[in-house]
Write a structure and sequence with these properties.
This protein is an alpha+beta fold. Helices cover about 25% and strands about 30% of the residues. The strands form three sheets. Strands 1, 2, 3, 4, 5, 6, 9, 11, 14 and 15 form a ten-stranded mixed beta sheet that branches. It is globular. The N and C termini lie far apart (about 50 Å).
C-alpha cells in the first residue's frame, strides 16, 4: 500500500526569540532516519536501550517525546535537518539532548548513558560513538576499505580553502577513551540543544545544520579537468558548523556502535583490517 510522502517541514526562524533555550534537564530524544523498513538489530537495540533506561531508573527516555523519525532517501541532509527541526520545536517536555541514530546501527543497552556520562556542559556538547564504515581504498579506488568515523584535521588539498578531514587508522585511535576530533559521523551522535540553537542563530537560515557542500579547487594555473574539488558530507558539514559556533566535537571510543551491512562492521573487524593492511 502506497504511503503519502512526508511533508516538507515549515521554515524555522533562526532568532533568539523563536528558538528558546529552555529545556527539560537530562531528558533525551532519539531521532532516527529510516527508509520503508528498519534493521531488526537496530529495533532490538532501541527497545533494549529504552528498557535499560527504565530499569536503571535513569528516566532519560521516560517522556512522550522520547523518539522521532524521518523518512530518508537519496538526499540525507533533508531528513537530518527535519529531525533537528522536530526536536527544537518540541514542548512538554523540550528534551535537553538529541541522540541522532541511523537505522542500520546496533548498540548496547547502556550506549546512551555512556555518551551522557562522557558529556559535560559547556565543553562536551557533541559526542559520538565509535562507528565503522566502508570507504574508498586510497591506494586502489576500485577497492573498499574499512574506516572509523574519527577524523583529524589535515592540511588543505592544493587550491582548497578548507582543512581536510583525515581518516585515522586503527593504531592511532586509543581504545575506551575520549578523543576530540575535527569531525565524526551522525550515525550515533549525541547533541545538546544549545549547539543546535547556536548554529541556527549563527547562520540565520532555515535548516542550517546538515548540508553536503563542494569546496571548489581555485587553482587557475591548473586545467579545469585536472582540478579536484573537495566534497564534504552532510555530517562533517555539521561538525564544521559546530566548530564555527564555538563548540568542540568528541568521540567516545569506548562506545562501540556496530554498522549492520551485508557483514557487521565492528571495531574488532576494523582494527584487524588495519593490522592486516600494515603487515601486507
Amino acid at each position: 500500500m502506497a504511503t503519502e510522502p512526508a511533508p516538507h517541514p515549515e521554515p524555522i526562524m533562526a532568532t533568539e526569540d523563536d528558538l528558546p533555550g529552555g529545556f527539560a534537564p537530562g531528558k533525551v530524544t532519539i531521532g532516527y532516519l529510516s527508509g520503508t523498513e528498519v534493521c531488526n538489530d537496530f529495533m532490538m537495540s532501541l527497545l533494549a536501550l529504552r528498557d535499560c533506561d527504565t530499569q536503571a531508573g535513569w528516566d532519560r527516555l521516560n517522556h512522550p517525546n522520547w523518539w522521532i523519525n524521518q523518512r530518508s532517501g537519496v538526499n540525507v541532509s533533508r531528513p537530518r535537518n527535519g529531525l533537528v527541526r522536530k526536536f527544537l520545536t518540541m514542548r512538554d517536555p523540550a528534551p535537553e539532548w538529541l541522540l541522532m541514530v541511523d537505522a542500520d546501527m546496533k548498540f548496547e543497552p547502556n550506549a546512551l548513558e555512556q555518551l551522557l556520562a562522557s558529556a559535560n556542559f559547556p565543553d562536551r556538547l557533541v559526542v559520538g560513538g565509535l562507528c565503522v564504515a566502508f570507504g574508498a581504498d586510497t591506494a586502489d579506488h576500485t577497492k573498499v576499505a574499512l574506516m572509523s568515523t574519527v577524523f583529524d584535521m589535515a592540511d588543505p588539498a592544493p587550491g582548497i580553502d578548507l582543512p581536510a578531514f583525515k581518516v585515522l587508522p586503527a593504531k592511532a585511535v586509543q581504545r575506551k577513551a575520549m578523543r576530540e576530533v575535527y569531525g565524526t559521523g551522525a550515525a550515533f551522535l549525541l547533541i545538546h540543544r544549545q549547539v543546535l540553537i547556536d548554529i541556527a542563530v549563527m547562520v540565520g537560515q532555515q535548516f542550517p545544520w546538515f548540508r553536503e557542500i563542494v569546496v571548489p579547487d581555485k587553482r587557475e594555473d591548473v586545467d579545469w579537468g585536472a582540478r579536484h574539488d573537495y566534497w564534504v558530507s552532510e555530517d562533517l558539514f555539521f561538525c564544521l558548523q559546530a566548530h564555527q559556533a564555538g563548540h568542540r566535537v568528541w568521540v567516545n571510543t569506548g562506545t562501540e556502535i556496530q554498522h549492520i551491512k551485508p557483514i557487521r562492521l565492528t571495531e574488532t573487524l576494523w582494527r584487524s583490517y588495519g593490522r592486516a593492511v600494515q603487515s601486507a
